[in-house]
Amino acid sequence: GGMAGGCAWGLLLAALLAAAEREPHLRPPAEAPVRLFTEPELARYDGQKEGQPIYLAVKGVVFDVTSGKEFYGKGAPYNALVGKDSTRGVAKMSLDPADLTHDITGLTEEELKSLDDTFNNVYKAKYPIVGYTSRRILNEDGSPNLEFKPEDQPHFNIKDEF
């Protein structure tokens, strides 16, 4: 692909690369800029502050669920899921605090299938991906996980919630 007319993009890329050079531990392994969320960062987007976006992670993928704030906002039925990776809760259809974790150890085949269905048909279909949890992008020792692939959202369209 030619870079004609891509001057602004080139500058953006240069700025991103310069930032990555300065902070080597934040350099995303993928070419596209990828936002990495630590647990404390994700916890800030828990729907408690009016006007603040609401984020929810499933399978290490951070979704902006602000458009569904009647489900995920303060006092809403699924507010317990937001501001964290709630993969297990989504798999088990559970809001039990013990299930609001990334950990999927011991889930049944049905629960894992339900997780994938919900991940693809609800979250990926309805909500934009804003980044990934550090657990999804980094190895245990904090080095970039070279296997990391950003999720594609080819069928993404913001479906009207109302």
UniProtKB/TrEMBL annotation:
Please give the Gene Ontology molecular function terms for this protein.
metal ion binding
Residue span, Cytochrome b5 heme-binding domain = 37-134
Pfam families in alphabetical order: Cyt-b5
Q: Known InterPro entries for this protein? A: Cyt_B5-like_heme/steroid-bd, Cyt_B5-like_heme/steroid_sf, MAPR/NEUFC/NENF-like
Which keywords annotate this record?
Answer: Endoplasmic reticulum, Heme, Iron, Metal-binding, Signal
The domain of life is: Eukaryota
Q: Which SUPFAM superfamilies match?
A: Cytochrome b5-like heme/steroid binding domain (SSF55856)
Signal sequence residues: 1-22
Q: Which GO terms describe its cellular component?
A: endoplasmic reticulum; membrane
Location(s) in or outside the cell: Endoplasmic reticulum
Family membership noted in the UniProt record: Belongs to the cytochrome b5 family. MAPR subfamily.
Name of this protein: NENF protein
- Which species is the source of this protein? Eubucco bourcierii
